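Human:
Focus on the backbone:
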Amino acid sequence: MRRPTLAFTVLALVLTCAIPASGDVTPGALRRQADQARARERSLSADVARLGRAAAALERQLAVLERRRAQVQADLAADRARLAVVQAELRSERARLARLRARLAQVRRTLAERLLAAYKAPQADLTTVVVSAASLSDLLERARYLHDVERQDRRILEIVRAARADAAAQTRRLAVNERRQHDAVIALHVRAQALANMSEAVTSRRATLVRVQAARAEALRVTRANRLRVESRLQAVERELAAQAARASRGPGGPWAIPWPVVQCESGGQNLPPNSAGASGYYQILPETWRNAGGNGPAAYLAPKAEQDRVAASLWAGGRGASAWVCAGLVGAA
């Protein structure tokens, strides 16, 4: 079930707490209004308690999100450190590859030049060298020269092969490091996105918490204000009822324990003997009612007026027992 929005809830609280306008209402209606106001106050108190529980739950969720965000932040820092290491290694490998390629190019140029020189120079075999030698020392010198040339050529070929192999190996290492960098960049992006999502969730939760707390404060304010208004209205009504009762009790032979119009209708202000139903006295109280209310004597008319006033006042109960007298409804006192 979806909960109503906070704004709607607060509006509903305000509307439900409205106090009816004053007017010509009966005492019973005023008492019902007071009871309804108390019931609304209890309902508002329950709403405030629910808001408090919701705020506490949001606080706990917010703490969980904050811990998760801190963990993601730590992981993101670690990913950035790893990426920095990979990028440094990648720069070093690229620089070494550039040096190897430059060396390979230089060796190739040297080899090309040597091959070109060998191609252009006349080919001298061992017989030609021996015949053309001027002396034994010349022959030995020429033989050493031919041996050195051959050894240098082999050395150049070895350097070329080694440089080519180094360049190929470095190219492979570079490819591996580039993949590592690519993976690190992707991981960094994933962590950064996770951090952004966590931050958004935290922000949203915090805003919700603020709204809930504001609604709680508003509900408390409305509850308190309406409770005060209800209490003030009740006090005013009670004073008005007391004044009305005081005025109503001022009749001939009074004061009376219940409104004079009711007494006037029931007995005319006289201590009447029992009628056909058995009701008697100033207030026309039935014998059973008299005994149940704790009246002294077997019947109301036999008791002093003060005793009849006491019993009648307890039966009237501030107007709540008005239905005990038929005349109360006839004169509009019920």
User: Anything to note?
Assistant: The radius of gyration is 56 Å.
